[in-house]
């Protein structure tokens, strides 16, 4: 008799095969060759009487499409047809789509987690019977997949949606954190180390905000020297205040230093920088450490930050992978929505 774990693994593999088969079938069905062949077969059947089932299918689809268009046009008329209404409709549609995507994300995230748990069960069972190293490997791969999946979500939605995501599925945050820690182990030079060294070189007693703090390593390292306040979407330890860093539960102008170390993840970057400026004192320092490949153009990005009411202090490349930028808050805001404040998502490769 096969061990339970092996049966589960076989089942997973079989499902994968089935999916692939179906995909192939679909591709074949729409290929011009198949359509041509079907046409010929239809024409030859029943002594010249033309039988073309593929045509009926097409007709049906066309009719459906036409009906949909008609409905849409009707709605436009009811809505007044004005540009504003059109815009509103578009926005509503976009929102609906976004919500659907979010639901999909959450559903998939859950499915992924379930798969991970299954993988864990499988590998534990097998380790106890056969000690198969391949399954350990498979488990790691599944975990890596979950991390990459959540990571991508965080970089491609607004932070408010990330908050929702973790509210609906808090476990996915742990999966993300574990994955991130796994990644950083491979880095020869984590920018966090340089930031901590820099903070240690400063006079004591500074109010330091660590935004998107992860495990709040800065507070752990320099919490005795400075007043470090650590914020993240979910609090994984008691040093952390859980919140969206676009809305900090802090008063204006209280911070000497604000740090974003690899944490500018949501697409609402502008909100994060504005919030950092709000809590900073005039002359206070904003430090941003990011993955170099995220910048379309570092100079353009820095110019945009400056327009929001900052002055550049310095820019330093940390190896080829990271850039650390330093700004000081000034009173004058040149542009409230500057061009160029964009970062590309940081997607990790499969191991
Ligand atoms: N700064 C830490 C962690 C980096 S990982 C370090 O260098 O080790 C990025 C972190 O940013 C994650 O923990 C993520 O949850 C957090 N983050 C992303 N968007 C956020 C938001 N809108 N508000 C608070 N934290 C956020």
UniProtKB/TrEMBL annotation:
Main localization of the protein described in the UniProt heading: nucleus
Region of interest called Disordered, as start-end residue ranges on this chain: 14-94
Database matches in Pfam families: Methyltransf_8 (PF05148)
InterPro entries per UniProt: RRP8 (IPR007823), RRP8_N (IPR042036), SAM-dependent_MTases_sf (IPR029063)
Molecular function via GO: methyltransferase activity
Bias (Basic and acidic residues): 14-48, 62-72
Keyword Metal-binding attributed: no
SUPFAM superfamilies per record: S-adenosyl-L-methionine-dependent methyltransferases (SSF53335)
Ranges of compositional bias, category Basic residues: 49-61
GO terms under biological process: cellular response to glucose starvation; methylation; rDNA heterochromatin formation; regulation of transcription by glucose; rRNA processing
GO CC annotations on file: chromatin silencing complex; nucleolus; rDNA heterochromatin
Superkingdom, taxonomy of origin: Eukaryota
Intracellular or extracellular location(s): Nucleus, Nucleolus
Keywords noted in UniProt: Chromatin regulator, Methyltransferase, Nucleus, Repressor, rRNA processing, S-adenosyl-L-methionine, Transcription, Transcription regulation, Transferase
EC number: 2.1.1.-
The keyword Cell inner membrane is annotated on this UniProt entry: no
Functional summary from the UniProt entry: Probable methyltransferase required to silence rDNA.
Protein family per UniProt: Belongs to the methyltransferase superfamily. RRP8 family.
Protein name: Ribosomal RNA-processing protein 8
Highest classification ranks of the organism: Eukaryota, Metazoa, Ecdysozoa, Nematoda, Chromadorea
């Amino acid at each position: 008799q096969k061990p339970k774990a092996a049966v589960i693994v076989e089942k997973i593999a079989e499902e994968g095969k089935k999916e692939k088969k179906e995909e192939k079938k679909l591709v074949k069905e729409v290929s011009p060759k198949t359509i041509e062949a079907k046409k010929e077969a239809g024409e030859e059947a029943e002594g010249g009487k033309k039988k073309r089932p593929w045509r009926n299918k097409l007709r049906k689809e066309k009719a459906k499409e036409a009906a949909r268009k008609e409905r849409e046009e009707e709605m436009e008329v009811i809505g007044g047809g004005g540009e504003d209404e059109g815009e509103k409709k578009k926005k509503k549609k976009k929102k609906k789509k976004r919500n659907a995507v979010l639901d999909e994300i959450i559903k998939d995230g859950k499915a992924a987690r379930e798969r991970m748990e299954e993988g864990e069960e499988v590998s534990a069972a097998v380790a106890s019977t056969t000690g198969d190293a391949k399954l350990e490997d498979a488990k790691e791969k599944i975990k890596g997949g979950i991390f990459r999946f959540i990571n991508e979500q965080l970089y491609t939605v607004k932070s408010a949606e990330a908050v929702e995501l973790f509210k609906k599925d808090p476990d996915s945050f742990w999966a993300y954190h574990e994955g991130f820690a796994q990644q950083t182990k491979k880095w020869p030079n984590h920018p966090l180390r340089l930031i901590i060294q820099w903070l240690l070189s400063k006079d004591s007693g500074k109010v330091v905000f660590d935004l998107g703090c992860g495990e709040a390593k800065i507070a752990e390292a320099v919490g005795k020297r400075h007043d470090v306040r650590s914020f993240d979407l979910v609090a994984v330890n008691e040093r952390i205040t859980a919140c969206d860093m676009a809305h900090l539960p802090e008063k204006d102008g209280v911070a000497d230093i604000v740090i974003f170390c690899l944490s500018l993840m949501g697409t609402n970057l502008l909100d994060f920088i504005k919030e950092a400026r709000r809590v900073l004192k005039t002359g206070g320092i904003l430090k941003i450490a990011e993955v170099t490949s995220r910048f379309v153009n570092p100079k353009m990005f820095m110019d945009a930050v400056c327009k929001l009411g900052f002055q550049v202090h310095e820019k330093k490349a940390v190896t080829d992978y990271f850039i650390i930028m330093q700004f000081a808050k000034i009173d004058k805001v040149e542009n409230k929505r500057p061009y160029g404040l964009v970062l590309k998502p940081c997607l990790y490769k499969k191991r």
